[in-house]
Amino acid sequence: MANVVVIGSQWGDEGKGKIVDWLSERADVVVRFQGGHNAGHTLVIDGVTYKTALLPSGVVRPGKFSVIGNGVVVDPHHFVKELALLRGQGVAISPENLMVADNACLILSLHRELDSFRENSNAGLKIGTTKRGMGPAYEDKVGRRAIRVADLADPEVLKTKIERLLRHHNALRRGLGIDEMKAETIYDELMEVADEVLPFAGRVWERLNQMRRDGKRILFEGAQGALLDIEHGTYPFVTSSNTIGGQAANGSGLGPGALDYVLGITKAYTTRVGEGPFPTEQLNDIGEYLGEKGHEWGVNTGRKRRCGWFDAVLVKQTVQVSGINGIALTKLDVLDGMEEIKVCVGYELDGERIDYLPSTMQGQANVQPIYETLAGWQGTTAGARSWADLPAEAVKYVRRIEELIGTPVAVLSTSPERLDSILVHDPFQD
């Protein structure tokens, strides 16, 4: 049995929640390996809707073991809040079915303040962050001054680490014209939730390696999308963590040999939230149509998503960078009824045709999409559960996408309902 990594192959919001939920039903362990509570999944089980932001989606299913890995930055107050929210819906969550990596770094109030100040400042470059503190928390992690989950267990050492952290942050705050933060404020905010967080803390790397040796089936659940990867995305308009498939190993404490199959969740068109380049964006009736029919707004933020045609250049690049073995194509039904559908098959930059997204900010902003026009279909794909249920032109569209991105469709999702899917290849049986 394979261990499966699920990532978004675009800018996030590809419909990972449904696919992760479908796979988590058959997994033994579900692992979050990067990001924070700035991205979420909507899960509908037996008619009940659950929304997760930080907790792995496996927590809503009895009998599953869920893990927040070391690659995640954890807001301890949000952690406690989300626990209470799901428990209020009748979900049983305890250290018996959830573990948080004791070496995961924490998001503090000063991180949220700094994130918001930068994003709202006219002097800075607007990235389009959620202002929830992920970026500054990752900065402290790399700067080797972060507070980690394990530090909550030793109040005296914690005080020393807070003072060291504030030597950096208060100098920064003075320069930005923000009032300095007192060490007692940070200490008190952490002690307020320490007793609720610490029972879940543990050596995730050790537990996961043992579970792998025991033959447990592990599902690695990514947040955001690969085009927001700090290294391989549309830099600097990216998130602050690695979102590509390889991060599942590093962000959980398992070696790369544990990653058997990478499934890239891919929307049948393209959306993005926040600032940054978007070559196929449609600032017209097409974009409005896709947004309205696709209900394109963020699960946790409520932000409206920008919409455009499918960009095969970007997805092909993601397939290669992330080692994607197959894709789950979602929201095909949103394209039902369109007369024609366009797909980006290349770019033009400075009079030259290219088949990749440039690394420079200027190049990314200036590429012009080269489109191929395909016939639309008047029939419906919504609710289809076999290829025979699909209009012929819809099948041609799916096959053309496979050709352009260089990887097969493993799962075709035809509505938000879990059972409305066509399984071509079972990732767990790789």
From TrEMBL:
Listed GO CC annotations: cytoplasm
One GO process term, biological-process aspect: IMP metabolic process
Cofactor(s) this protein requires: Mg(2+)
Residues the record lists as binding Mg(2+): 13, 40
Pathway entry: Purine metabolism; AMP biosynthesis via de novo pathway; AMP from IMP: step 1/2
Transmembrane segments annotated in the record for this chain: none
Residues noted as binding IMP in the record, renumbered to the chain: 13-16, 38-41, 130, 144, 224, 239, 303
Subcellular location: Cytoplasm
Quaternary state and interactors: Homodimer.
Protein name from the UniProt record: Adenylosuccinate synthetase
Lineage: Bacteria, Pseudomonadati, Pseudomonadota, Alphaproteobacteria, Hyphomicrobiales
Gene, per the UniProt record: purA
